Amino acid sequence: MSWFSLKKKLSIPTTKDEEPLTISQVIEDCLSSNDFEHELIVTPYKNIWISYFNTLIDTNKLHDDVIEKIQHHQFYTPEDLRTFIPLKETKLTSDGKEVADSLTRGHVCIQLVEDAELCILIGIETEDNRQITIPEVEFSVIGPKESFVEGIDTNLNLVRKRLPITDLKIKEFIVGSLSRTRVCVLYIDSIANDDNVNTMVERVSTIQFDQINDSSYINQMIEDQSNSPFPQFIDTERPDRVAALLSEGKVVVLVDGSPQAFSGPTTLVEFFSAFEDYFLSWHLATAFRLIRLFAVWFSIFATPLYVGVLTYHAEIIPQDLLVTLIVSRSAIPFPPVLEALFLELTIELLREAGARLPTKVGQTIGIVGGIVIGTAAVEAGLTSNVLLIIVALAALASFTTPVYRMGNTIRLIRFPYILAAQLWGLIGLAILFNFMLVHLLTVTSLGRPYLAPLYPTRLADFKDAFFRLPFPFQSKRPIHLQTKNNVRFNKKKAKKKKDIDEGI
C-alpha cells in the first residue's frame, strides 16, 4: 500500500502543524495485510526486528545478503548495521512517509527495537521482468531485434547503451496517487529545445490521476488537443528508434510497467514513416513512403467516392465502366450508402474479432470470415462485387500505416466521409476535407505545428518527410524542432572517400 492509502486509512491530516506519520504507525497499519511480515530475528549479538512485504522482495537476497551478514557481524547501532550490508541501496530514516513508500517498493525495514523511530531501509526488490524479445508491432527484417519490456530500469539501460553520453538527461517523477508509477522524461540537453523539455516536464509532473497502468494514459492526458482524433505523440517499442528520436532533439517519455515509449513534438508526416526505412536504400525507402501515403488517401476516399459518384455524379463514370457497375448493382435493393456501411462495418467486426481472439484463431477468423461473409453477401444480393473489392482494398491500404494509433484514426474518419458523400456528393467530400484541413492546421504537438513541414513550409525538412534522401543530405536536424544545435555532422567532411586505386 502507498503513502496515500496509509494516510487515508489512518486519517492523517496534511497540515504542517500536525504530527507526522511515524514508523510504528506504518508497520501497525501494514500488519493487516497477509503478505506483510514483521518478525524478530535472533542474532548472537543483538536481536532485530525486520519488516517487509514478502510478495515484493527477493527472498534469496534477504537471507544471503541481509540476515546471514547480520548473524555473523557485531553491531550496536543502525549505522554499524549499514556498514557490512553488501547492498548499495541502503539508507537510514525516521520519516514514516518514506518508510511507507519504500516498503511498497520492495524495501526491507530493520529496527533494533520494535518501536524504534529510526530504521534502516534496504532495497531488495524482486526482479520478475519479461525477457527482452523482438518487436511485435514494429517488426523489421533488417535492423536491431530488441524491444522494450515492462521494467523501466531495463528500458533505460537499453536507451543508455545506444546513447552513451552524459548529455542524455533523465527526469523521474512519481505519477498516480494509488499506483505511484515511475515516469521518466528523457532528452539530450545539448540538443533538445528547452521549451519542449519544460513543457513535457510540466505536463507530466502535474498529472492528477489515481492509476497509471500504461504510457497511453499519460499520452492522452498531456496532448495539446485531447478532443482531436489525430494522435499527437508517436508510440514506439524500439530502443533504437527512441535513440534516433532523442538525437533529433525530441523528448521521450518512458513509463514503468509499459513496453511502449512515446515522443514529441511530432508531425503528421512522421506517422507514415517506418523506422525500417532507414535500414533500406533511400530509393526503396522513398518508394515505400509514397506507397503508404497513397494507401492512406485510397483507404479514406475510395468508399466515399464510390458512394458519392453513384449517388450524384454517375455522368462522370466512363461508359464501359458504367455498364459493369449497372450489372453489378442490378440485384442490389439498397442505395450505395447502406451497401457501403454494411461492408465497412463487417470489415470492422472482422478486425475486432481477429484482434481480441488468440493469434491463431484470430488469423483464421480474419481470412475465413472475410471470404465466407464477402462471398455470401454478394450471392445474397446485399452488396455488389465491385464495392466488395473496393472496401477490401481500402482495408488492406489502412494496414500500411506504421503507427497503430494513426491506423485507428484512418479507420474512424472514413465513416464521416461516407455520410458526407451521401448527403452532398463530391461537394460534401470537399467540404469535409476542408474542415479536416482547418482542424489539422490548429493541432499542435508540444506547441509545435502538426503539419510541418507543409505548414509552415520548411523546404529543408522535406529531405526526410515524403522522401528519404541519402544520409549525406541530412546534415541538419528538423527545423520545426528548434533545437539548440541543428547540425548533425559536418557535411564537408562527409564526402565520399576515394577508392584505393585512385591514389591519395
TrEMBL record:
It comes from the Bacteria. Keywords: Membrane, Transmembrane, Transmembrane helix. It is found in: Cell membrane; Membrane. InterPro entries: Spore_Ger (IPR004995), UPF0353/GerABKA_families (IPR050768). The chain crosses the membrane at residues 290-312, 386-405, 417-441. Its main location: membrane. It is a multi-pass membrane protein. Belongs to the GerABKA family. This is Spore germination protein. It comes from Alkalihalophilus lindianensis.
